[in-house]
Write a structure and sequence with these properties.
The chain is mainly α. The protein has 24 helices and no strands. The chain has helices at about 1-25, 30-35, 40-55, 55-70, 75-80, 80-95, 105-110, 115-145, 150-155, 155-210, 215-225, 250-260, 260-270, 275-290, 290-295, 295-305, 315-325, 325-365, 370-390, 400-425, 435-455, 465-485, 510-525, 545-580.
Length: about 575
């Protein structure tokens, strides 16, 4: 254990030293602190986005779901590609073109200050009581289970959790509060490289153990024994029925990747539109790897240990404890902590940014200087960190299956926010009263449909919460459109463009979009009854013909996008900015 701790500290120290070296003397103004001086390149954006997204909740939660059921939960990860495409091609030109620092700032430019405050409140409530505590809790529980901290320290599980949460939280808070976005992005990228390495090593070691020293034999085992575990096409009885991809999931994912402040803040700090598009689209390709890194190990655990683990969230920890060589344990611990730190410090940094720009500067001091904005964000970040340190351990009493619980609670704020953004972009006469009513109606109805009616009236619905989110998205949009008909704006909204960076799009944005869509479709084909979940062999006779057709169609559209659509897209953006530029 001593060797594990030493190697962990050494790797984390290297990340801290390198981040400090790269950020020293770079925070001279608010752009430098909150948006990394608008100088992030595609590689740093992709690395930071991936590690911000991937944390212990995925390592533990997704593997637990695969262990207990099948691959249907991979839909959350793979279909994120659709959302990053929309972010790269549609939303990012608008965000960067308006030189926005926060998403609520964009809402204010389209609607009004009241709508901005309501959206900011949704974000703050969600971050404070759901997202930040769940990130700290899931990280702590993973560390406790993987390295048996209670026995090592001679403490109870609850006491150990408090210690781990405070240690991890304080380190993460230091990055976010003192280093700003650039320090967060650089440390995220380094830790992200480590996560990819470990994420690919673990299933290889698992296959080696399952095949008694033969990796290919281990792969054959999961493809031929209980192949239904490899099916990503979820039925209505699964946590993620396949149909939910086309209802609530697409909007929940679009909220996360397209409008969630702690995600898009990296893209807002891009040195150019092209770099922002590179980073977001590359992120989509990295997300394709998640099922292999964070779900296949859960299925390997099922074959190695059987279906009777005490808790489904113990599947991945059991695999790590049993199989990971001691020489890699310190590196794994450092990477695991890095993933937790990344999500935590990103959330903290974004919450502090919103407080400074959307509350303090709006309600308290409109002419606040850069020095004051940075100072107030540090104070708020410190306070929010302390609050989260006390809330996170209380999740120890939460039900099993942390992954789905988090997804249910985020439904309170993700659906109304993405509905407001899309309506704000694609409509010109919807008044501010529309989104305000939509927010209030959504929060009330979502609570009643998910918890209120079953608890107080015994009324339950045999329908996935993801479908409910999809229906409430439609309702929110309908409310805003009706408001636009009943009480339209006197004059159509005219968006003001004021870019601070180069707005020339990446010349491979559309071709990479085509490849990303092809990769997503292939992933679902691979993990289906046509592919590895075929009950009578490794794959069905249809697998290779279907893959061949997909490859041919992808190649055709790649060629068309590169030769024709690319020029049209670039011309469209060029004309837009020439017409709207101040």
């Amino acid at each position: 254990m001593t060797f594990t701790i030493i190697t962990c500290i050494l790797f984390m120290a290297f990340v801290a030293w390198y981040s400090y070296r790269k950020t020293r003397n770079t925070i001279g103004d608010s752009d430098g602190y909150f948006l990394a001086g608008r100088g992030l390149t595609g590689g740093f954006i992709a690395g930071s986005l991936v590690l911000t997204n991937l944390s212990a909740e995925q390592l533990v939660g997704l593997n637990g779901q695969a262990y207990s059921a099948n691959m249907s939960n991979m839909a959350w990860e793979v279909t994120a590609g659709i959302s990053v495409i929309i972010l790269a091609l549609i939303l990012l030109p608008r965000y960067i073109g308006g030189a926005f620092t926060t998403l609520p700032g964009f809402v204010n430019s389209r609607f009004d200050e009241g709508t901005r405050m309501m959206v900011t409140l949704l974000f703050m409530m969600g971050y404070t009581f759901v997202t930040i505590p769940s990130v700290l809790y899931s990280g702590a529980i993973a560390v406790l289970q993987l390295f048996d901290v209670p026995e090592l320290l001679g403490l109870s599980l609850e006491q150990s959790m408090w210690i781990v949460i405070w240690i991890v939280g304080i380190i993460g808070a230091c990055y976010a509060i003192f280093g700003g976005l650039r320090a967060v992005a650089i440390s995220d990228t380094l830790n992200g490289i480590g996560l990819l390495i470990i994420g690919l090593i673990v299933p290889i070691i698992g296959f080696y153990a399952l095949g008694s020293g033969n990796i290919l034999e281990g792969m054959k085992t999961i493809a031929t024994e209980n192949p239904e575990k490899l099916n990503s096409i979820g039925s209505r009885d699964d946590a993620v029925p396949f149909g939910t991809i086309f209802t609530g999931m697409i909007f929940a994912n679009l909220f996360y990747w397209g409008t969630n402040q702690y995600v898009i803040q990296r893209t807002l700090g891009a040195k150019s539109l092209a770099e922002g598009q590179k980073g977001t689209l590359f992120t989509g390709f990295l997300k394709i790897l998640v099922p292999f890194m964070m779900m296949v190990p859960g299925i390997i655990a099922f074959h190695l240990y059987g279906p009777d683990l005490q808790n489904i969230d113990l599947a991945y920890p059991a695999l790590i404890n049993q199989l990971l060589p001691p020489i890699l344990s310190g590196f794994f611990l450092a990477v695991l902590l890095g993933a937790v730190l990344s999500s935590f410090n990103s959330l903290l940094n974004s919450a502090a940014t919103m407080f400074a720009y959307d509350i303090y500067k709006v309600k308290f001091k409109k002419n606040a200087s850069d020095r004051e904005m940075i100072a107030i964000s540090k104070w708020f970040g410190t306070l929010l960190a302390l609050v989260s340190f006390f809330i996170a351990p209380l999740l120890l009493r939460a039900p099993d299956g942390l992954w789905n619980i988090i997804r249910e609670f985020t439904g309170f704020f993700n659906i109304p926010v993405i509905a407001i953004i899309l309506v704000g972009i694609f409509s010109k006469r919807v008044p501010p009263i529309g989104p305000k009513i939509a927010i209030i109606v959504h929060v009330f109805l979502y609570y009643m449909l998910i918890w209120g009616l079953p608890t107080f009236f015994g009324i339950t619905f045999d329908i996935s919460f993801i479908h409910i989110q999809g229906m409430l998205f439609v309702l929110a949009v309908a409310i805003m459109m009706v408001a636009g008909i009943v009480k339209p704006l006197a004059r159509p909204h005219d968006f003001t463009y004021n870019p601070k960076v180069d707005m020339v799009p990446w010349k491979f944005a559309l071709p990479m979009t085509v490849l990303l869509i092809g990769a997503m479709v292939f992933c679902f084909i691979l993990f289906s009854n046509v592919g590895l979940a075929y009950p009578d062999g490794i794959v069905s006779g249809w697998f290779w013909p279907v893959v061949g057709i997909l490859a041919a169609v992808t190649a055709i559209f790649y060629f068309i996008s590169f030769k024709r659509w690319n020029d049209k897209y670039g011309t469209l953006l060029h004309n837009t900015y020439n017409e709207k530029k101040l």
